[in-house]
Write a structure and sequence with these properties.
It is a single chain. By secondary structure, the chain is mainly alpha-helical. Helices cover about 80% and strands about 0% of the residues. The protein is built from eight helices and no strands.
Length: about 190
């Protein structure tokens, strides 16, 4: 993902070279860590709300009442829903922007957490355009998953990589300033 975003931001219309495997592994670890950090709240919610239900179910023979277990299962269900909503509306969009900003700065890990820069990119792109892009990516992901499953699951090995390339390329094109936006920015603050 990071390499495809970097190549597209750099103006390339070709697929990036998938060589230098050591560097790609390091980039993959960075992307994983960025995603993990943005998902920490969802993980904490799951642990706090779902762990008691899992523990109670594991120790069902200890004499905990069915009402107590059903209450804990209900609490776990709430935790799963809250975590999923956090991931859908906060975690995924922020990690996506963070990864794009990291690619914009040639893989600099801390760039994934520069919220003011990410806010500036969203202001330039337009919040509505970003939301539309995000919804289209969700729909494309669902379609890629369904097609992959229809192809006996093995299709996921084909559809998911193409889906990630599509997401990466489209995000980079959305993230990259147009010539008009660049000239307007230079007119407002010459010398930058």
């Amino acid at each position: 993902m990071l390499r495809a975003i970097k190549a597209s931001i750099g103006g390339s219309d070709e697929l990036p070279e998938f060589d230098e495997w050591g560097e790609m592994i390091i980039e993959g670890i960075k992307v994983f860590l960025v995603s993990l950090i943005y998902f920490i709240p969802a993980i904490i919610i799951l642990i706090v709300l779902a762990a008691p239900a899992i523990t109670a179910a594991a120790y069902l023979s200890t004499g905990i009442s069915i009402d107590g277990i059903s209450g804990l299962i209900g609490l776990a269900f709430v935790g799963i829903i809250v975590s999923a909503l956090y991931a859908l509306f906060i975690g995924i969009p922020l990690s996506t922007l963070g990864i794009a900003n990291m690619a914009y700065y040639d893989g600099e890990f801390t760039a994934a957490f520069r919220f003011s820069e990410m806010r500036d990119h969203i202001s330039r792109i337009g919040l509505v355009d970003f939301i539309i892009w995000y919804i289209v990516m969700i729909i494309a992901g669902i379609v890629a998953g369904i097609v992959g499953i229809i192809l006996l699951g093995l299709g996921l090995l084909i559809t998911i990589p193409y889906y990630y390339l599509f997401c990466s390329r489209s995000l980079a094109l959305l993230f990259t300033p147009t010539e008009q936006a660049t000239s307007e920015a230079e007119a407002v603050s010459p010398g930058k």
